Amino acid sequence: MKEKIQAYLRKPAVLGLLAVQLLVVAFALAAALRPAAAYTFTADQWESIAQESKIDYDEDGRIGVTEMTDGEDILQTPPMTLPKGHYTVTLDYRYVPSVWEGGVERRSCLYFTSAEAGTVTGEKPCIDVKKQQDTLTLNVSDDSETVRLVAHNDGGIFTLGTVRIEQDMLYAGACVAGWLVLFVLLDAFLLLTVPGSPVRLADSELCACLWVLCAMAVLTCAPALTNGGAANGADWSFHLSRIEGIANGLREGQFPVRVYSMAKDGYGYAPSLFYGELLLYFPAVLRLLGMSVQGAYHTYLLAVQLLTAGVAFFSLRQIFKQNKTALVGSALYMLSTYHLYKIYWLSAVGEYTAMAFLPLILAALYELYDKKPLTRRRARKACAELVVGFGMLLQVHLLSLEMTVLATAVFCLLHLRRTFTKPVLLTWLKAAALTVLLNLWFLLPFLTLMLSGDYNNMYTGSPENGGQIVKNCGLRIAELFGWQKNHNNLGPELLAGGFVLLWCWLTLRERDAQPEGVNRKDIRVGLWAVGFAALACWMSTNTFPWQAVGRIPVVGRILVAIQFPGRYLSLATVLLVLAAACALSALRRTGYARPVAVLLLGVSVFGAALFFRDQQADTAYLGDGGQMIYSEYKKFNIGWYFDGLYLPDGAHETQNGYESTVPVTTVEVTSIEQADGITTLTCAETTGQDQHAELPLLYYPGYTVIEGPGTAFKTANGLVGVTVPANYTGTIRVTYREPKRWLAADVVSLVTLVGVLLIIRRKKCKGKRKDQPEKG
Predict the structure, then answer these.
(1) Are strands 109-114 and 144-167 parallel, antiparallel or unpaired?
(2) DSSP 3-state assignment of 167?
(3) How do residues 14-54 score in pLDDT, each as one tens digit?
(4) Of 1-10, 170-179, 307-316, which range is least confident?
(5) pLDDT band at 705 (very low <50, low <70, confident <90, very high)
(6) Most exposed among 85, 528, 672, 730, judged by the fewest C-beta atoms under 10 Å?
(7) Predicted model pTM
(8) 10 Å Cβ neighbour count for 1?
């Protein structure tokens, strides 16, 4: 084998490919090793470009607009020679924004400009109003000798002092490592799939399918390959801010990250305690290596689509034992209207990531509820698929988990006799136990907060009207069909697949020539899929009695937490894909499978083309966190707003921050400072009794006094308070530390993961020893 690989590597095409890869790595390495470009400009070196504003110096020696004026570009640096790369801009400034009607503050920014078109990316990160020094990231897309840094005053008083522009060589080094990883993965893929390779997979049809799957993933990501693509949906700012929050938390030393300390103007916000984000650590690490938020998110999107294609294909292949049927089903799933809607129209990261794991649960159910006796091998496979499937739903989108658990529970109840057979029941119990143990590090904090009753903002309305609110958000039945502009529907291709299955049931079932078992089994599975898909479609509409569901004690409140019933279309999508695949499998021996597959794929590609046509991408390049800090500037003056779903009860959020409606502070406060996730209170207690001080921190379990006396507690305003001992004068420092019981849960999950990996390795070693011939 070694000689075959060496001979293969000497082929001209292989040598050419390796030469190109080495050349790319060499250029990246040269860029990483050259001296970093750096420029420093003082206040007197800024050049005025203001047309209407008066430029002058303030009392601190900064230059700029010293009186309230309207917005325009006011200053620029002398030209700089900058090679392609990322640049950190460290700035000393003072900014007092003017206010629009309605109390919304204006936002000033910095950006690169160049006399040479196409050499700068054009992002315009806003400066933080609460600071007087900040560091932003800007990008140069090609070498240029005419780059200038421009200061734009959106309105107000804006003066600037010393600025330093320095190339980020960490990112340059990370690019070298990135190219190496990419080429290793590419070469491994080519060795496994290209004809003539000595280690090529034995199934040539499978190799061809893998190429098509990769192409399908790239096609799905096509709009994201443009500047601003896939980063302008309804939820983009929330999810991209999560990436920034995780990166910032890791930088501060949190792991796992529980609280985003920079969120909500430094008050701190903890979506991590309510919303699984395990997979978002991948783009967060890319952020730490210097990649822009847009680049990190696009890399994550491509990785998830490759994962979705692979999981869908191998799950359907496990069910039907056919490559072509699995490939067609995967293509229908990837290009489904609802899938694209979640990626681009909503930027619903959790939901489209959850869709990557739904086919895995279908494959597990097929193994468990097939009429064949459940062997140990199949039970282990089903158990692993259930653990990964449900575990990842827990880690990426809890509402998808809720819907899937509900549908699975109904399915198990309808197959009660099979469910309570010993092998099936044991498999369910093992899967449930492993899922809980592996995810205990997230489950324990989540359940602690949910059961505390102190975080109720995420629920829809009240127990009395929550169901009615959800019902009002449901789709009209007509919206399930066709392609309306926002594409919040199933698309005709999946409905056609369901109708083809029904046609097979009505016609093929009675044929004498039908091979026993094959078609009948596929049709039976497809009918179950169509039935559950129809139920999911009904639940997504405003005709479903959500108002009655909402009135069910306890359970109703959980079920109406779905907020938007249209989310049930994710289940309908994967089930109708399964039904279409069942129809194709049933038609395989009749000669109709190929034209039906071509028809379904044609309609699917046409629908995707219509979607991409309607998808209006913002051509502006989205840079680092500075561009997102005031993403909600039209509504709030709060930096890093995120949303309001996970606020503690009692927190009163306003346009400008948080108000304390109940007086708490009873000591003399000298100052409150925040830096690197630590809040420092300087105060004096003069009454001779224990008193309290309220800090600008939203309360979540874990805030601890790390220096000075006193303890942290939750105030009536939903904020963090500290007790100040009698006659104490000095500083008290507070930061977030994970509670010990949560740390214990972290250890349990880690030990369980290590144990599972050791068991898997041990069984593989045993299998290899069994396969070896006996000596002697």
Answers:
(1) antiparallel
(2) strand
(3) 889 899 999 999 999 998 888 899 999 999 999 999 988 88
(4) 1-10
(5) very high
(6) 730
(7) 0.90
(8) 7
Question: Could you identify the residue written with the tokens 């999946």?
Answer: 494
Bridge partners for 113 per DSSP: 148
Report the run of H or E that residue 20 belongs to, with start and end: helix 12-33
- Tell the burial category of 717 from Cβ atoms under 10 Å away from its Cβ (0-12, 13-18, 19+): buried
**Helix, strand or coil for residue 464?**
coil
Q: Which of 62-71, 306-315, 612-621, 647-656 has the lowest mean pLDDT?
A: 612-621
The Cα–Cα gap between 163 and 80 comes to: 13
Q: Cβ(251)–Cβ(288) under 8 Å?
A: yes
- Residue 176: count of CB within 10 angstroms of its CB: 19
What are φ and ψ of residue 475, in 5° steps?
A: -80, 155
Helices (H), 94-168: none
**What one-character-per-residue DSSP string does 537-573 give?**
HHHTBTTS-HHHHHTSTTHHHHHGGG--GGGGHHHHH
Residues 660, 661, 664: CA angle, nearest 5 degrees:
60
pLDDT per position as a tens digit, 104-116? 888 888 999 998 8
Tokens of 177: 């490592």
Contacts of 410 (CB under 8 A, 6+ apart): 532
Contact present, 697 and 714 (Cβ < 8 Å): no
Name which of 681, 702, 746, 694 is nearest 720 in CA terms: 694
Q: What angle do CA 78, 138, 344 make, to 5 degrees?
A: 145
Tell me, what DSSP letter sits at residue 341? I
Nearest Cα neighbor of 74 from 61, 89, 99, 56 is 56
Helix/strand/coil for 752: helix
- From residue 468, alpha-carbon distances to 184, 553, 568 in Å are 54, 15, 17
Let me know: does 83 contact 31? Beta carbons within 8 Å: yes
**For residue 569, which amino acid is it?**
L
CA 270 to chain centre: 15
Nearest one of 263, 257, 84 to 632, comparing CA atoms: 263
Check residue 645 and report its DSSP letter: T
Cβ atoms of residues 466 and 547 within 8 Å: no
Directed axis angle between helix 492-507 and helix 323-334, to 10°?
140
Q: 428 or 104, which is more confident?
A: 428
Q: Amino acid identity, residue 620? A: A
| Farthest CA pair distance, the chain | 96
Q: Is the Cβ–Cβ distance between 652 and 661 less than 8 Å?
A: yes
